[in-house]
Structure formats: structure tokens, C-alpha cells
UniProtKB/TrEMBL annotation:
Keyword Membrane attached: yes
Topological category with respect to the lipid bilayer: Multi-pass membrane protein
Protein name: Uncharacterized protein family UPF0324
Species of origin: Denitrovibrio acetiphilus (strain DSM 12809 / NBRC 114555 / N2460)
Family: Belongs to the UPF0324 family.
Residues spanning the membrane: 12-34, 54-72, 78-96, 108-129, 135-154, 227-244, 250-274, 286-311
GO CC annotation, single: plasma membrane
Compartments where located: Cell membrane
Length: 316
């Protein structure tokens, strides 16, 4: 069995198969982790290096799914809301990371995933700060777990509190990690909630770029890491879709390919997880993330219900 698992191309083949038949990055991550932790992965360094390269390309491809001009025009009012939310989340995450003695890079990844857009933010921040494969995998796993809980919990809380469509959409965009989970929870609640949630979430996702740039600058000053130039191509991809509407169908296809590449990558990232390494990390990162998520959810919900933050838009 070990001889079979030592075949690097076998891991690549399995990753391709999963990316074709599974739409869920969380499933891919779990499958990769399950195989690695039960059977082992003798070529963990090779799969990890490939994952990092494909991850950067996937982020660029996902940029074609953003329309910067639409987000800035329709969601202008949400820019300040998201900026305050992201800044506060990163600050609280920093404090909690220190409080629970979570390693610096892992704390940054967990805080970034909570503050901006889950897996995509973690994927962008990881190479920017020079995070290890293990820290990236753990951060991804924790965020995807909380995403699943959000899909179940948020709609029930919204109905229990009789939240309006606009308010629920805004709350989902501010408090749920991944865009896919925001879309899922908001669509359960209603079409107007979906319209608001999607627009605000896309505006929030744009902050990946400046946050990753900041992370890269700080990291360069300490470790002389390479600047994440792929983030510029991510921005260029979003701009191309915004200003070349005639090719929108092609851009959406490229974004779709980017999503499949993300599934491919997360399988390989999961394949880098080992039981021994997970034991070294412990429960502290999970406790930190859950507590940070609860704080963000409760505070943003309170702000919205008290009328301190309101955002509405016409139906798409």
C-alpha cells in the first residue's frame, strides 16, 4: 500500500477525479485528510508544493467571478460597514490569538477567514505571510466546519427574530465566512436576502487584496518572503470581467474552472494533514475561531437589529 501511495501522480489523479465529481471544497479537504491520516502520504511535500502553485492560479481564476464596477456602484454604502467589520474582526482575532497562545500565522489565517471570506481569504493570505501547509489546512478545516453550522443556524435565528430580508442578507454577508455559504443561507431565507447578501459579500471579498498586501509587507520585513504577485492578477481578472461584458460568459466559465481548481487544491491540502501534526496544534485554534465567530455574529446582529447599520437594494 505504501508503494502505491508513494506514487505522486496517483494523488494528482484522485484530486482531479474529486474536483470533477464534487462541488464542495469541504468534502475534498475532508477526503484528502481522511486518506492521509488513515493510510499516510509519503509524498506530502510534493503534493503540498503542487497545492500552493495551483492555489494561486485558482485565486486568479476566481477573480473572473467578481464584477468590481457593479459591486462598487450598487454596494457603495456597504464598503464602510465591511471595512469597520473587517478591522474589528482582525483586531479581536489578534487579541484572542494572543489570549489562547495560537501560533502567529495560524491566528492570522483564522482571523482573515472570519473577517473576509473564509477559504478564499485564507488561500490568499497563506502565501502572502508564508504560512505552512499545516496551518493552511487547519485554518481551512475550521472555517469550513463553521460554514456548515452557519447554513443550519442562521436561517433559524433570522426567522426566530423576524428579521427583514435586507437585514438578514446583511447579517449573513457580515458574519458567515464563505461566499457559497452566504448564498446558501440567504437563498433559504428569501430572494431579497440573497440579493443583499451577495452584493455585500462581494464587496467584503474585495478586501482580500489590501489585507494580503499588508500581510506580505509585514512578512517581507521579517522573513523576506516573495511578494504575492498573483494577487495583482486576481484584481486584473475582476477588472476584465467588469469592463468587458461581451465576454461575460467566458469569464464565468473561467471562474467555474477556478472553483474546480480550488476543490483540487483543497484535496491536496487535506492530504498534507497528519495525526501527529494535528495533535501538536491542539484545540486552541478551534476554540479561538468559534469564539471569534460568535463575537462577530452577535455584535453584527445587534448592530443591525438596533438600526445602526442598514443596507437595501432593488431586486436583481
Amino acid at each position: 500500500m505504501q508503494n502505491l501511495l508513494s506514487n505522486f501522480y496517483l494523488w494528482v489523479l484522485v484530486a482531479i477525479i474529486i474536483s470533477v465529481f464534487s462541488k464542495s471544497p469541504a468534502v475534498a479537504l475532508c477526503v484528502g485528510a481522511a486518506i492521509s491520516m488513515t493510510l499516510g502520504n509519503p509524498v506530502r511535500k510534493k503534493t503540498g508544493n503542487l497545492a500552493k502553485k495551483i492555489l494561486q492560479l485558482a485565486i486568479v481564476m476566481l477573480g473572473f467571478g467578481l464584477q468590481i464596477n457593479v459591486v462598487l456602484k450598487v454596494g457603495y454604502a456597504s464598503i464602510w460597514i465591511t471595512m469597520i467589520s473587517i478591522s474589528a474582526t482582525m483586531f479581536v482575532g489578534y487579541i484572542l490569538g494572543k489570549l489562547f497562545s495560537v501560533e502567529r500565522d495560524l491566528s492570522i489565517l483564522l482571523s482573515s477567514g472570519t473577517a473576509i471570506c473564509g477559504g478564499s481569504a485564507i488561500a490568499a493570505m497563506s502565501p502572502a505571510i508564508g504560512a505552512s501547509e499545516m496551518h493552511t489546512a487547519v485554518a481551512m478545516a475550521v472555517v469550513f466546519l463553521l460554514n456548515g453550522l452557519a447554513l443550519i443556524i442562521f436561517p433559524h435565528v433570522g426567522h426566530m427574530l423576524n428579521m427583514s430580508q435586507n437585514d438578514f442578507g446583511l447579517w449573513s454577508a457580515l458574519a458567515i465566512h464563505d461566499t457559497s455559504s452566504v448564498v446558501g443561507a440567504a437563498s433559504i431565507y428569501g430572494m431579497q436576502a440573497l440579493a443583499v447578501g451577495t452584493t455585500v459579500k462581494l464587496t467584503r471579498a474585495l478586501w482580500i487584496l489590501p489585507l494580503a498586501f499588508a500581510g506580505a509587507k509585514i512578512n517581507n520585513s521579517e522573513n523576506k518572503a516573495k511578494f504575492p504577485w498573483f494577487l495583482l492578477f486576481f484584481l486584473l481578472a475582476a477588472m476584465l470581467r467588469s469592463y468587458m461584458p461581451a465576454y461575460d460568459d467566458y469569464f464565468m466559465q473561467m471562474a467555474f474552472i477556478g472553483k474546480r481548481m480550488m476543490v483540487f487544491t483543497l484535496f491536496l491540502i487535506g492530504a498534507g494533514l497528519t495525526v501527529s501534526e494535528l495533535k501538536k496544534i491542539g484545540m486552541k485554534p478551534l476554540v479561538m475561531s468559534v469564539l471569534l465567530w460568535v463575537i462577530v455574529s452577535v455584535v453584527s446582529l445587534t448592530v443591525i437589529l438596533e438600526g445602526w447599520a442598514h443596507f437595501s437594494m432593488p431586486m436583481f
